[in-house]
Design a protein that fits this description.
The chain contains 17 helices and 8 strands. The chain has 3 domains: 123 residues, no CATH class; 151 residues, no CATH class; 73 residues, no CATH class. By secondary structure, it is of the alpha+beta class. The strands form 3 sheets. It has a 4-stranded mixed beta sheet, with no helix packed on it. Strands 1-4 form a two-stranded antiparallel sheet. The longest helix is centred in the C-terminal third of the chain and has 27 residues.
Length: 427
């Protein structure tokens, strides 16, 4: 090769020209195939440098030694040598209970390779973009050069804030696709393949650590509990939903916009009435019972907190309208979308960490779709509810990355012709 990447075993080693009938599963494999067809190995390694590379490992072995890496070579007659097979994301098989995949960057392979490791590496074996490369020190030095200069060489093969999809093997229509699209804001934010139901994410260990760090989920039972809470919209704040429900009722009563002052007044009235009614005598199986009166300071604090929340929601909605997330005269009806969107994502996270089966993850995605459609009437309405919930939890009215990332993701999903929000009807 002109740029010294090393001898590559390409089509001449038993391959054949399939360019007219082969459709690459994702953009990554398409770029690899085009570079290979041109013989542009520098471009080929640039692609490898900005994507995750996956190697297979034993689920049982990783339970015994979770922080280790085992590179298992296989004999390939094409080069008459042992080779380590590595795969790009679109070429991964469906999740299997006994086999998992771990992801590493090209730079990681260049630095971590040891003298006794396989003398060859094969990328996407058995596919039209299959290529063999030697792994000697001089070749790995060139891998490092590519990794150092290509954006994303820190090992993140999922460029954030980009719509990515499987062209082959992904859900593109029907209820499963709709359920996956409910998680598309998070998929775009993280640069994940939005329509991959057979999900590996960034590899078994990464997904397992993600669930532990962000969700405190470390077992199948904890995943199940979290999944059910999300599907029941029980992880969002009940106070948020109370405030929004008051305005929703007023909007129905008055058939139009509800002023913030009116909203606050009615919310206070409802809170005080509920506090008074909680002390009324009730007849039950054990006779007449009377609850202790609510502490006045507690009620006042609750009223103050809800009125402050109403102001915060109103300010977010004003920003939403300015940024095109809400149309003039509209408002957020519910933030349940934040739980339903995360429920869609949680189903795939659980599959990637092997806390559930593919069938269980698919059922959770379908339930997320049904729940979302029972509450919202359009993708844009769902999006505004999701983003408001996320901002109320994380953003503290800073309008920082927690907000800005969602604005960018929303715009991508509402304008990109390939977006599921444009190709899939809401109903």
């Amino acid at each position: 090769m002109d740029n010294g990447e090393g001898s590559a075993a390409g089509p001449e080693h038993g391959g054949h020209d399939t360019r007219e009938r082969w459709q690459a599963p994702s953009a990554v494999e398409g770029e690899l195939y085009e570079a290979k067809t041109r013989g542009d190995w520098s471009a080929y390694f640039d692609v490898l440098a900005r994507t995750d590379l996956f190697v297979a490992d034993s689920y049982a072995r990783l339970q015994r030694r979770p922080d280790t890496v085992l590179l298992t070579p296989y004999w390939y007659p094409q080069v008459q040598a042992d080779c380590l097979p590595v795969f790009t994301e679109g070429m991964l098989p469906g999740p299997h209970p006994e086999t998992v995949f771990l992801s590493h960057s090209l730079g990681w392979f260049a630095k971590q390779w040891e003298r006794n490791d396989p003398p060859w590496i094969v990328v996407n074996p058995g596919t039209p973009c299959e290529t063999f490369f030697p792994t000697g020190p001089e070749h790995r030095a060139l891998w490092s050069e590519h990794a150092d200069r290509v954006s994303g060489s820190d090992g993140c093969g999922h460029p954030h804030l980009r719509l990515r999809a499987l062209r082959v093997g992904g859900a593109t229509e029907g209820p499963v696709a709709h359920g996956l699209a409910c998680g598309a804001l998070l998929s775009v934010k993280n640069g994940e393949l939005w329509n991959s139901m057979a999900y590996h994410g960034r590899g078994y260990s990464y997904e397992k650590n993600l669930l532990k760090e962000w969700w405190g989920v470390t077992s199948r039972q904890e995943w199940q509990r979290t999944q059910e809470l999300l599907l029941g919209a029980e992880m969002i704040s009940g106070v948020w939903e109370f405030a929004l429900s008051v305005r929703r009722s007023l909007a129905l009563d008055f058939a139009g916009p509800v002023g913030v002052d009116h909203w606050r007044t009615v919310a206070e009235r409802v809170l005080r009435r509920n506090a008074a009614e909680s002390t009324e005598a009730k007849i039950g199986p054990d006779g007449v019972t009377t609850a202790e009166p609510r502490d006045l300071a507690e009620v006042e604090a609750q009223v103050t907190g809800v009125q402050r929340l109403i102001g915060r929601i109103a300010r977010y909605e004003a920003r939403f309208r300015a940024d095109g997330l809400l149309a003039e005269g509209t408002f957020v009806r519910s933030v349940e979308a934040w739980d339903y969107g995360r429920a869609s994502a949680m189903a795939r996270f659980g599959l990637g960490a092997r806390y559930c089966t593919l069938a269980e993850a698919e059922q959770a995605v379908l339930r997320a779709s049904r729940a979302a459609r029972s509450t919202y009437r359009a993708w844009e309405e769902f999006s505004a509810g999701y983003i408001l919930g996320r901002c109320l939890h994380f953003d503290e009215e800073e309008f920082g990355t927690w907000y800005e990332d969602m604005v960018t993701a929303h715009r991508i999903l509402t304008t990109d012709p390939a977006s599921p929000w444009l190709t899939l009807s809401w109903a």
